[in-house]
Write a structure and sequence with these properties.
Length: 206
């Protein structure tokens, strides 16, 4: 929690409480359904929560924003973002049912009324959203193909509607495949920890 308070000192008491509760909830559920690697559960706040909140540094979501989290796994980045932006709506999807059940249990325990968790493939979705977020579920070019139909034309943020994609490492080759405009935000510009040295948010306006 010290990390979250360090980079987001403006949190309300309710937000702090929810972020604090995450550790116990993930320890409980991860012992039953493996949604986070065993070694990462001890670094939950750095490698999962704060990593997810890198998107909040790049583009804070305004009231009324609709956000789709594709391949949410254990609820990242969607759950931390839903705590951070209680007036935005989050649709968390994954093709693996047992992971979605854990995500729904955690969202319910945290009383996140702005979260909907669903077992469905992104390609099957018809709804539209201002932003699609994800954490490295596949190479970015096929990902754009899955979700471009779901991007709303109702743009009201500093960044135009599109994809905010958490990725790490050298992306030169992967991004060269992508014909769309894109912009790279280095998370090391926002967070000092060594873990973030190679972590990025790839923004693709659509």
């Amino acid at each position: 929690m010290e990390l979250i308070n360090k980079y987001f000192p403006e949190l309300t008491d309710d937000q702090r409480s929810k972020f604090s509760e995450m550790e116990g909830l993930y320890q409980y559920w991860n012992a039953r359904v493996n949604v986070i690697s065993r070694q990462d559960i001890d670094t939950l706040y750095e490698r999962h929560v704060l990593h997810s909140l890198g998107i909040a540094k790049v583009q804070p979501f305004k009231s009324g924003t609709s956000v789709l989290d594709v391949g949410t796994g254990g609820g990242f980045p969607g759950i931390p973002l839903a705590i951070m932006f209680p007036d935005a709506q989050f649709h968390l999807v994954d093709s693996i049912g047992k992971k979605i059940r854990v995500v729904q249990e955690i969202a319910d325990a945290l009383k996140l009324t702005n979260v909907k968790a669903e077992q469905i493939r992104a390609e099957k979705l018809d709804d539209s959203y201002e932003f699609v977020v994800s954490r490295a579920v596949t190479r970015i070019t096929p990902f754009v193909g899955w979700v471009r139909k779901n991007i709303s034309r109702n743009s009201f943020h500093e960044l135009r509607n599109g994809i905010l994609y958490l990725k790490g490492g050298d992306l030169t080759e992967e991004l060269a495949e992508l014909p769309h405009k894109k912009r790279i935000f280095e998370l090391s510009d926002y967070f000092n920890e060594e873990f973030f040295e190679t972590k990025k948010v790839v923004y693709v306006p659509l």
